[in-house]
């Protein structure tokens, strides 16, 4: 009866922990999408909402930390259960950074004028959608403990990287041809870099999800991390 | 007497935890430097050493995880002490990724031929040194609990970002003028991106060091993360 009570209490704690991570992840995903919308539409109110909303993501990280510590101290989880709690702590740290990048995009959005005249801006939304999708998928993988989906997120990072390279080249040509737009281009390159970092951090979460689900980090046949082969 | 014993045991555990992080960090810093040396000199044996050495960094992350859990479970640390243990767990996860990027650079180094004929290669070592210095400084900041030095690391990330942009432009021009070198250029751009990510992750560690030392995350006057202002 005592053991059953302990198991039930542990399950409740873990469910709450997973709920907090899901909430953080949902907010981070919305932050990416809203920051990109604010950028494309020039919607300062939406940008401000993203900037202010980041505090909630930070607060949730703190809650994850506290609950994880409480679980380790009170429930003394072993093996798989402990691995899950450790993964939650690390994932919360990475999702918090995704929130930071979205906030930075929202701040850049506030600084851009004359967006209609700036043709390369049309490339950014698709890159942003891809990154937001990675954040979404990695959270789905986390919720379902789906190591296969986590591996797909890692592979998708290459697409975000390629997008970044192509946008960079496009912007450089545009800057050469239209020197008057250099400061806008610099702001948008900064946005592109932050989207690239969001993709990289989603990949980092995917590695942790894989670890929580299987006890190993994802690797290709020669033990190389999937997203860093450069092939 | 019992309380004194507990405090001493806790201090010993924390010292060991900090020692493990320092060892991980030292190995990660050496991995960055050696991977760049292997790339510039075409030293395949050194590249192999970096690739194999990454397993030791991964194993140390596991040791940090285990010890941190043991400390929380047995010593029930409070406030500052607990914050330090949580920071160690998260920092270990980020330093492990720095090791991954170095391994990826070492693998790229093995794939490059005709490096002497490739002029843009001369730009990469300085960028690599800057990133290795960030890794070094952030570990010094961690060891000394120096929030000021952690802030300096965050500011230095902008230099790595600017380096990356300038290298990217240089490579694109070089590729246009020398189409035969495009595959080498692509490998080297991949290296530059990984160096940029090492800088970004050193920044992430710096935020955690700041948090462990002060209980707050570093922010400029309007609460914006220092390295993401894009100004």
From TrEMBL, chains A, B:
Homodimer. It is found in: Cytoplasm. It comes from the Bacteria. Residues 21-108, 126-209 form the PhoU domain. Belongs to the PhoU family. This is Phosphate-specific transport system accessory protein PhoU. Keywords: Cytoplasm, Phosphate transport, Transport. Plays a role in the regulation of phosphate uptake. GO terms for biological process: intracellular phosphate ion homeostasis; negative regulation of phosphate metabolic process; phosphate ion transport. NCBIfam families: phoU_full. GO terms for cellular component: cytoplasm. The lineage of its organism: Bacteria, Pseudomonadati, Pseudomonadota, Alphaproteobacteria, Sphingomonadales.
């Amino acid at each position: 009866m005592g053991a059953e009570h302990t198991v039930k209490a542990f399950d409740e704690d873990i469910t709450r922990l997973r709920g907090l991570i899901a909430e953080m992840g949902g907010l981070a995903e919305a932050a990416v999408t809203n920051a990109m919308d604010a950028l494309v539409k020039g919607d300062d109110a939406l940008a401000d909402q993203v900037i202010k909303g980041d505090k909630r993501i930070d607060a949730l990280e703190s809650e994850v930390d506290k609950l994880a510590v409480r679980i380790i101290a009170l429930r003394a989880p072993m093996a798989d259960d402990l691995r899950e709690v450790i993964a939650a702590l690390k994932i919360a740290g990475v999702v918090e950074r995704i929130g930071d990048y979205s906030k930075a995009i929202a701040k850049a959005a506030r600084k851009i004028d004359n967006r209609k005249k700036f043709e390369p801006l049309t490339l950014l939304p698709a890159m942003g959608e891809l990154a937001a999708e990675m954040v979404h998928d990695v959270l789905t993988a986390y919720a379902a403990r789906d190591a296969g989906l986590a591996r797909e997120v890692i592979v998708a990072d290459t697409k975000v990287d390629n997008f970044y390279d192509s946008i960079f080249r496009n912007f450089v040509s545009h800057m050469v041809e239209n020197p008057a737009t250099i400061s806008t281009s610099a702001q948008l390159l900064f946005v592109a870099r932050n989207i690239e970092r969001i993709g990289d951090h989603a990949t980092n979460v995917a590695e942790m999800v894989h670890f929580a689900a299987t006890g190993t980090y994802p690797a290709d046949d020669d033990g190389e991390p999937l997203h860093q082969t450069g092939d």
